[in-house]
């Protein structure tokens, strides 16, 4: 068990006692309001708020246009000499991967592969105009394809070959309606400023859900890989019933399909192992999926796999582009809940992955603008017979590794897909479906690796572990659409349970604790002269920052829904205050209080007051450790003050990264933390007594304070 560091040494306690006596003055809130000259904040009236929002000017109109059309802000300044090579390589590399993934994901949806190619074309053009992330690869996404496929599977399968064409058309109609409705929901979320709604899908919910979706997809690919006829089931335990059909029909497996699947799996797995082993030597990963598709098509034609070995192939791929058609939305009522699930999951992945790349490469992404871009991708795509899209993690990683410079790479990928649709799409009509099934299964290895989360969550947060398992089981039992709803509801119940358990000893339960913390903000504190109290510098004009110290307080629980906002704001505040409020020390000088004479490494201190934080879940705890590590590298020491007993216990016994505690120091109060920092500075800052105003009322209050000493 890790121990909390001692707060004050005997020498520091002696130094504290020798400090000016006003640092030990205790005052109540009424006296503090007078001493700090608290400002009364008058809320704006409704008309004042409307006037502020509706104010129009040339600068504001320009800002609005650049915000709605980000391409106008970067395209005029596009440098061909600096950016063209990286964008060209990235666009071609991602476009090559779009071909097999688009066709494979179309199979997951249950529609002909050509619709996967459509979905890899139009959304890329829309995101090029409206998107803000240069690293995200928009297009087909396996998780969304699975979710849509669970809906199209409800279309009744018919035996007659002529009627089978009508069934395919019905499936395409359902997929298009769902996609268009999904886009409308995302646009409505944008108008309602719902750019942060995706954060309510916590990591345990998403990872448990996607793991179950991966298992579901693997089972669905077994009939294609073995040639065993199996019906797609809906309702409870659909994967179990499909697996039951495969096991009972094992004697009717097609040898040709088994051979194609086995050879394809060996080639693809071996190729990925080679890519991983030589990734530092290869400029670009070898596109084994594309190689496999070309080889499979050639062998299928040469060996007549359809006629002699009864292997299923892709079939007819029409050339050209389909004209835009406005979907009818005749089944909008039945498709609303699945469309809502697809909208939330798609935007959650896009927002999370976009933030990761933006933080890594030092630029800003607007999640609200990306929500608008994704909504337009799906509404416009629905008119051109696309199915719902989002960002792909694998393609985005390729785009990053090839040194992409701008969204121009997405436009180049779209041009490649356009060439394939117009010229060479018909060459893949003899491609065995077993090859596409193998590509899908092998590329799900990342989702299956998420089972490692179980060990980590068992150590750091077992309630999050319960959420992860509940999300997995509910998705496997209730299918993908209803399973996600059950998982989200269960996650919110655990959130209420955490909060309720924390405040159960109070006389009443404040509503602010049970509400979202996204409305709260991090507060910057300053010391009120003549006291040991620290208050909001925006409310108290006399509250002054301590030199070289940034003191922050957050008044609400920190958990998966708000941790990203909280710690992003903390990073920005500390970075800004580090420049404006220096400690006046030099990194090359040695600390006078250090007997070892080592080089002074920290030039600033951040004190985080957690006295009002009732709980932190595993996601927030990991984010806290990450912030502490990053600030420590930047020369900023992190102190935690006023931690409740529950958070102290988490830090000591359930820390997900126990070694990260070496970068943190824990103190019972903000004042203790400030005293420790000031006592360890190479040149301790001198504190001067501040004279109070000379009015009669203030003189009386000063006499009261003097008697308290």
| Widest sheet: strand ordering | 4-3-5-6-7-8
Give the overall shape, derived from the CA principal axes.
Answer: elongated
* Helix content percent band: 55-70%
Radius of gyration: 30 Å
Indicate the multimeric state. single chain
SS elements, strand count: 8
What's the total helix number?
Answer: 29
Structural class: mainly alpha
Low-confidence stretches: 1-9, 12-29, 157-162, 502-520, 587-599, 684-709
What would the average pLDDT be, to the nearest integer?
A: 78
Distance N terminus to C terminus? 40 Å
Largest sheet: 6 strands, mixed
* Strand residue content: under 5%
Could you list some keywords that capture this structure?
6-stranded mixed β-sheet, two-stranded antiparallel sheet, 709 residues, 8 strands, mainly alpha, 5% strand, disordered N terminus, 29 helices, disordered C terminus
What does this structure look like?
- It contains 29 helices and eight strands.
- By secondary structure, it is mainly α.
- It has a six-stranded mixed β-sheet with strand order 4-3-5-6-7-8. A two-stranded antiparallel sheet has the order 1-2.
- Helix 26 links the parallel strand 6 and strand 7.
- Helix 6 crosses helix 20, helix 9 crosses helix 10 and helix 13 packs antiparallel against helix 14.
- The two termini are 40 Å apart.
């Amino acid at each position: 068990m890790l121990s909390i560091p001692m707060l004050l040494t005997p020498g520091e306690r002696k130094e504290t006692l020798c400090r000016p006596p006003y640092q030990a003055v205790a005052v109540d809130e009424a006296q503090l309001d007078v001493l700090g000259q608290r400002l009364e904040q008058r809320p704006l009236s409704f008309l004042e708020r409307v006037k502020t929002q509706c104010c129009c000017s040339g600068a504001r109109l320009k800002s609005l246009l650049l915000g709605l059309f980000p391409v106008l802000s970067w395209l005029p300044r596009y440098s061909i000499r600096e950016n063209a090579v990286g964008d060209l390589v990235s666009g071609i590399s991602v476009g090559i991967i779009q071909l097999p993934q688009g066709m494979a994901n179309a199979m997951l949806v249950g529609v002909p592969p050509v619709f996967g190619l459509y979905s890899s074309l139009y959304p890329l053009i829309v995101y090029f105009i409206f998107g803000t992330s240069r690293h995200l690869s928009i297009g087909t996404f396996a998780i969304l394809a699975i979710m849509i496929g669970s809906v199209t599977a409800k279309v009744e399968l018919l035996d007659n070959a002529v009627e089978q064409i009508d069934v395919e058309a019905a499936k395409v109609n359902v997929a298009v309606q769902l996609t268009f409705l999904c886009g409308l929901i995302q646009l409505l979320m944008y108008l309602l400023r719902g750019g942060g709604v995706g954060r309510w899908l916590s990591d345990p919910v998403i990872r448990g859900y996607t793991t179950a979706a991966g298992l579901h997809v693997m089972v669905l690919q077994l009939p294609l890989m073995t040639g065993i006829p199996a019906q797609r089931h809906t309702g409870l335990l659909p994967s179990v019933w499909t697996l039951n059909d495969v096991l009972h029909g094992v004697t009717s497996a097609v040898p040709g399909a088994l051979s194609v699947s086995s050879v394809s799996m060996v080639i693809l797995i071996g190729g990925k192992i080679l890519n991983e082993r030589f990734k530092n030597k290869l400029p670009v990963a070898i596109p084994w999926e594309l190689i496999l598709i070309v080889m499979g098509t050639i062998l299928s034609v040469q060996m007549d796999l359809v006629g002699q070995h009864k292997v299923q192939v892709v079939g007819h791929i029409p050339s050209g582009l389909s004209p835009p058609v406005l979907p009818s939305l005749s089944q909008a009522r039945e498709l609303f809940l699945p469309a809502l699930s697809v909208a939330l999951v798609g935007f959650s992945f896009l927002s999370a992955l976009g933030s990761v790349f933006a933080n890594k490469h030092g630029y800003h992404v607007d999640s609200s603008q990306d929500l608008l871009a994704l909504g337009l991708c799906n509404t416009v795509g629905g008119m051109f017979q696309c199915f719902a899209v989002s960002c792909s993690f694998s393609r985005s990683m390729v785009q990053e590794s090839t040194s992409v410079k701008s969204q121009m790479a997405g436009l180049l990928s779209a041009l490649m897909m356009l060439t394939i649709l117009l010229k060479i799409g018909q060459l893949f009509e003899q491609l065995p479906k077993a090859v596409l099934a193998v590509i899908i299964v092998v590329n799900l290895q990342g989702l299956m690796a998420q089972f490692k989360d179980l060990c980590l969550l068992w150590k750091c947060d077992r309630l999050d572990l319960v959420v992860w398992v509940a999300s997995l089981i509910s998705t496997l039992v209730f299918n993908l659409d209803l399973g996600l709803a059950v998982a989200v509801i269960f996650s919110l119940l655990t959130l209420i349970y955490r909060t309720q358990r924390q405040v159960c000893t109070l006389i009443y339960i404040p509503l602010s604790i049970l509400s979202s913390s996204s409305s709260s903000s991090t507060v910057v504190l300053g010391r009120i002269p003549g006291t040991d109290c620290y208050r909001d510098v925006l409310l108290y004009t006399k509250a002054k920052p301590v030199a070289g110290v940034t003191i922050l307080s957050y008044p609400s629980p920190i958990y998966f829904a708000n941790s990203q906002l909280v710690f992003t704001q903390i990073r920005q505040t500390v970075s800004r205050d580090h420049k404006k409020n220096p400690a006046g020390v030099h990194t090359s000088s040695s600390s006078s209080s250090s007997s070892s004479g080592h080089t002074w490494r920290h030039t600033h201190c951040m004190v985080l007051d957690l006295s009002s934080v009732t709980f932190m879940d595993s996601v927030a705890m990991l984010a806290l450790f990450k912030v502490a590590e990053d600030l420590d590298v930047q020369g900023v020491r992190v102190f935690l003050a006023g931690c409740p007993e529950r958070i102290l216990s988490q830090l000591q016994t359930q820390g997900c990264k126990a070694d990260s505690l070496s970068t943190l120091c824990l103190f019972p109060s903000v004042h203790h933390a400030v005293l420790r920092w000031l006592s360890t500075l190479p040149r301790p800052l001198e504190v001067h007594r501040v004279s109070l105003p000379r009015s009669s009322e203030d003189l009386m209050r000063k006499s009261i304070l003097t008697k308290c000493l």
